[in-house]
């Protein structure tokens, strides 16, 4: 059914409410937020993930941010269109937070931001990155990196390795091809060699004749045709097919988008973009089965990517509060689209009652736009009318500095970082 929370109610939100240029819930947007500067290719960044460097016992030693961007997105976007020119390649970036960022307001050090070289990547092979995931490095060993690639012929998943000894060089391993990746969007790792992958649509824009109609109808009418799979790989050196096992984890989801595994491995969160909801599933860590849908938590926007905080206390949800404006940006008919980042607590008291007075401090509160859920605290971390930061697609919190990193699907600045100076 059509979602009244997002595609109807939210559709008129921007026109009747005056948004701020920027709101940062833990500080002052004007003084505590700064964009990363990396040149003309560091823009239209869809996803980001922390690359944790751990000791042999699993203690966090350091970390970096891996970012996926595609400066050509307005010419090639297999989800929103258009499909004009797939030739210019997208990029991966590595940002290492500065030691100075541990205290005081957000400081971005341009020298700590580097474009990642895709070493060994096949010549003539497209690269239009969307979701990105990386396994932690233990005691200095190399990490597997997986990137959803919306290439011209089909959507695939690229596998690389990153080594802490040469962190700006991603060594190409292989391209994973499967009919179960036909509309792959986001990834969540369950081991170095296995992951969940969302497929956001059944009908895609690649389809001849119907590709400019049916995917739009699937989104607008919230047809439950998307799905989540779990994939296990064979070792790269093996002569066996790369995909050792595949199974469907969740079926009949309207626009399955961001996905994340809780740090204790017992839950999986999944964003349904057209429903404006986050689904929480119970997970069996031994089998990777999603055994039960625990709860559906509504948010006042169309959610995109989601990330658990390192301590597991919250899920960070990024999204688009006015999807028609986002579509206009994709078509070149608008310059910016608004942003909204929220957190959802993960520790739930089943005996608690719904709190009707929630999200009180935000300029535009979620209160009144979505119903409260018993035991869940839904809190705005960041908002912008788009002029401060456009089209938020991922939000994640730095476990060391407390900084909030945000990527923007069509943000000219690519990434913004906010941290309280208090």
Mean pLDDT over the residues: 92
- Number of beta strands: 27
Overall SS class: mainly beta
Helix content: under 10%
What is the oligomer described by this structure? single chain
Summarize the structure in words.
The protein is mainly beta and 422 residues long. 7% of the residues lie in helices and 42% in strands. The strands form six sheets. A five-stranded antiparallel sheet has the order 1-24-23-22-21, with no helix packed on it. It is globular and about 60 Å long. The model is unreliable at 1-16 (pLDDT under 50).
Jot down its keywords.
single chain, 422 residues, mainly beta, five-stranded antiparallel sheet, five-stranded mixed sheet, 5 helices, 27 strands, 7% helix, globular, disordered N terminus
Mind sketching the topology for me?
Blueprint: H1 4-8, H2 13-16, E1 23-24, H3 29-32, E2 33-35, E3 45-54, E4 60-69, E5 91-95, E6 113-115, E7 117-119, E8 129-134, E9 137-138, E10 143-150, E11 155-163, E12 166-176, E13 184-191, E14 194-199, H4 214-220, E15 226-233, E16 243-253, E17 256-261, E18 267-272, E19 277-283, E20 290-298, E21 302-308, E22 314-320, H5 323-330, E23 339-345, E24 378-384, E25 392-397, E26 404-408, E27 415-418
Parallel strand pairs: 3-9, 7-12
Antiparallel strand pairs: 1-24, 2-27, 3-4, 4-5, 5-6, 8-10, 10-11, 11-12, 13-14, 14-15, 15-16, 17-18, 18-19, 19-20, 21-22, 22-23, 23-24, 25-26, 26-27
């Amino acid at each position: 059914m059509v979602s009244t929370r997002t595609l109807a109610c939210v559709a008129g939100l921007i026109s009747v409410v005056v948004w701020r240029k920027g709101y940062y819930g833990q500080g002052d947007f004007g003084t505590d937020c700064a964009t990363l500067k990396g040149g003309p290719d560091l823009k239209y960044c869809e996803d980001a993930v922390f690359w944790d460097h751990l000791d042999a016992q699993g203690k966090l030693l350091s970390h970096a941010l891996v970012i996926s961007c595609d400066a050509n997105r307005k010419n090639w976007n297999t989800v929103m269109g258009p499909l004009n020119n797939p030739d210019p390649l997208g990029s991966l970036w590595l940002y290492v937070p500065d030691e100075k960022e541990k205290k005081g307001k957000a400081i971005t050090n341009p020298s700590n931001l580097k474009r990642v070289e895709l070493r060994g990547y096949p010549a003539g092979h497209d690269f239009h990155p969307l979701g990105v995931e990386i396994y932690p490095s233990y005691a200095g060993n190399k990490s597997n990196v997986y990137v959803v690639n919306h290439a011209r012929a089909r959507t695939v998943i690229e596998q690389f390795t990153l080594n802490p000894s040469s962190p700006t060089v991603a060594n190409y391993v292989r391209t994973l091809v499967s009919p179960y990746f036909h509309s792959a969007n986001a990834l969540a790792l369950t081991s170095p060699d296995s992951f969940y992958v969302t497929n956001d649509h059944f009908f895609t824009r690649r389809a001849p004749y119907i590709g400019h109609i049916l995917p739009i109808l699937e989104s607008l009418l919230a047809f439950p045709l998307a799905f989540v799979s779990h994939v296990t790989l064979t070792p790269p050196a093996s002569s066996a097919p790369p995909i050792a096992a595949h199974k469907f984890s969740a079926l009949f989801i309207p626009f399955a988008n961001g996905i994340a595994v809780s740090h204790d491995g017992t839950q999986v969160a999944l964003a349904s973009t057209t429903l404006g909801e986050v689904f929480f599933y119970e997970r069996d860590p031994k089998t990777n089965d999603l055994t039960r849908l625990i709860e559906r938590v509504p948010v006042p926007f169309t959610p995109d990517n989601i990330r658990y905080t390192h301590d597991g206390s919250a899920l960070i949800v990024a999204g688009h509060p006015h999807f028609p404006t986002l579509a206009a940006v994709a078509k070149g008919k608008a310059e910016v689209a608004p942003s909204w980042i929220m957190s959802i607590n993960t520790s739930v008291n089943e005996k608690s009652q719904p709190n009707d007075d929630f999200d009180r401090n935000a300029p535009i509160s979620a209160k009144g736009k979505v119903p409260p859920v018993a035991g869940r605290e839904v809190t705005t971390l960041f908002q912008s009318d788009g002029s401060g930061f456009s089209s938020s697609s991922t939000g994640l919190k730095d476990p060391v500095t407390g900084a909030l990193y945000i990527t923007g699907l069509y943000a000219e600045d690519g990434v913004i970082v906010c941290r309280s100076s208090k």
